[in-house]
Amino acid sequence: MFTRKASLELHYRVHTGEKPFHCKLCRKSFAYNKDLKEHYRTHTGEKPFQCNTCQKSFTRSCSLIRHKRTHTGEKPFKCEICQKSFAAKISLVQHRTIHTGEKPFQCKVCQKSFLYNKDLKEHNRVHTGEKPFQCNICQKSFTRRCSLTRHKAIHSSEKPFQCEICQKSFALKDSLVQHHKMHTGEKPFHCKWCQKSFARTCSLKRHNRIHTGEKPFQCKTCQKSFAYRRVLKEHYRIHTGERPFQCETCQKSFASKGSLVRHYKVHTDEKPFRCMLCQKSFANNEDLKEHSSKHTGEKLYQCNTCHKLFTRSSSLIRHKKIHTGEKPFLCESCQKPFSQKSSLVQHYKVHTGEKPFQCEICQKSFTQKSSLVQHHKLHTREKPFHCNTIQTFFASNKDQKEQNRIHTGEKPF
Q1: Residue 413 has pLDDT above 60, yes or no
Q2: How far apart are CA 135 and CA 381, in angstroms?
């Protein structure tokens, strides 16, 4: 019910969707004139509402009211189900959906559902590539306004939000909130599939892609899709050849920071991950997991095309290229393509004549380490590969396979 007829007429726009007020600069429409006035401030940069505690300014009075609660600690909006309190009403509304599981807004492209229409609009930009929010200092563009706000903190040295426990300061309030969870150990966001918990909702969203198989980030060059934006960025470097991460010790360059961190352990010989069964140590946890599967016989990685199983994720990635025929690594000298980077590195030695692996006994050199290992067996007379048919031993697996074909009659070439 309304006390004034004019108020009722304005309210009707909620149901009709009427938006008679248009922005002359970007043609965006609004239901109410006050919303249009507030919107104009995004173009002019005007922020007339200032906090008298920290002097931070805002375009809207309601934003200032919410901000003041960061100083007072006031949280007047309480959830009736779990009693959790919030400083803003919209935060309470968003929180309630955790209990109901409601997601009424669905993407027409990929059918992903969202709690709010604004989240759907932001998600649609993943498909369209639209980035409407631009930094006025460095002109970098973003799909979300909050991403632009966080980015602007890079240009400013101001950090008004301080942790009461360790006195660390932050440019953004949400960064402080997330930081507090390091002290409390709070992880309120739970995965409905595996019950793993997370401190941040964005971490849960990224984790969920492991279960759903969703890959929203697509390479514009080769159409390959990825679950995470950072992986797509690293993938682009295959096409551009960019390697921005350089080792200070040997000047070797890498496409990803993670690869550089792993490489550093070559120089330090650090191997902090130890197998509990044989005490062998490894430079990273991924190598330890793959090694452990040798003891258990477990093959965790399965090809979704032919269902072949592998003990290592890298082996599965290489195997998949058999089905796709993909050969993304191209020799700059002769344009020959390869499915694996390691094959391209080995091939380069054909052009350079490089033979870095030398036998300590006879000084013969080889382009590949595996060739040197096989050569050593000529000196040691080691023959670890056994033919069960004629009880003969061989120095290499290749020789054993060729002998087996004599017995089986197989002619694969």
Answers
A1: no
A2: 68
Q: Is 16 exposed, middle or buried (0-12, 13-18, 19+ CB in 10 A)?
A: exposed
Q: At residue 57, what are phi and psi to the nearest 5 degrees?
A: -110, 155
Angstrom distance (rounded) from CA 313 to CA 173:
39
Query: What does the pLDDT read at residue 391?
Result: 67
pLDDT at position 199: 83
Q: What percent of the chain has pLDDT over 70?
A: 93
Rounded to whole angstroms, the Cα distance separating 84 from 317 reads 45
Is 70 exceeded by the pLDDT of residue 407? Answer: no
What is the rounded CA–CA span in Å between residue 240 and residue 237?
5
What's the CA gap between 323 and 310, in Å, rounded? 15
The gap from C-alpha 197 to its chain's centroid, in whole angstroms, comes to 18
Q: Per DSSP, which regions of 306-354 are E strands?
A: 309-310, 329-330, 337-338
Report residue 265 as tokens.
């352990």
Average pLDDT over residues 35-56: 88
Measuring CA to CA, how many Å separate 400 from each of 233, 328, 407? 44, 33, 11
State the pLDDT at residue 189. Answer: 85
**CA 132 to each of CA 139, 145, 170, 188, 340: distance values in angstroms, whole numbers, following the listed order:** 11, 8, 26, 32, 38
